[in-house]
Design brief:
2 domains; alpha+beta; 5-stranded parallel beta sheet; globular; Rossmann fold
Amino acid sequence: MIFQGIDFHNVDNLREGEFGFCMCRVPEEVRLKLDEGAREDVSFNATGVELRFKIKKDKATLILHGHPEEEALTAFIYYGAFQGGWEHSMKAILMGREDTEITIPAPPNLKQLKKITEDQHLGFNPEVVRVILPYGKVDYVGILGEVEPPAPEDVPDQVLLSYGSSITHGSLGLGTPHSYVFRMAQLMHCDYYNYGYPGWAHMEPELAEYFVSRKDWTLATIELGVNMLSYDYETELIRERIDGFVKILAGDGRKVFMTNIFGFNNPGEQHRAEEIRGIVRETAARYKSNRLIFTEGQKLLNQASYISADLIHPSLEGQWEIARNWYDIIRDTY
């Protein structure tokens, strides 16, 4: 959506609150039909949200507000496909009652950056400033300076849509540009939408229907099952949720790459994980086609040293491992 000269990428609507505008990733009519945590909490995470604009003069100052209950919040600055340079690559966002002002200069070395972009088919015009927000809750307050949103030709026309749990969301990847979704989009030179729902990837059919209704993505990845481990759901309900979600996406016509639970280190949950992996696997077989491509999660990540100390979430290295392995499969079959 476009607001105040900025493209709020991966945002469907803004809601004015105490400190600024909170950002919701799905339409209100979809959000209200989701399970409680997805409805009331994580739909408002800044997962995959980028504030994109072109600076018309020499600089612009973005004003943000970090929610106090979040962990460390860091915004990353890119010029097109290029990480910002010295002093302009990442900025800490204050948490509490104070706003954070981030001053961003117009793109440096533009001639050379444009040449590299063209030579390597990078997709993003380096004139486009991309402020990549952390996956916590951040409010938009305002912007100082003259800016305008990117034109359609300034961004890639191929778009990856990804749905899943906190792993898709990027938890413990140490920064949003290290999520496997962001890295896969880099490898494919495409754009992306990240619909990671930490703790609440419950595969509601309304969310699948929303994804199918959108015509602005090219291919999708869906990571299913791990958020069923922590909830006392009957096996049959899990089976129904997975089947209904996959059936909707499988009927769309665009390619969907599907996986189940990645390898993890918690010994107490391995039996349940195998049961849920089996349900996802059976569902994938039921709807298998040249458009629905299933890969075992343990083929994408099954390296014990790439899991963080909580025994379940991939570390930075684990996120990269998923990105590389899944990218190879997509490249070979897309």
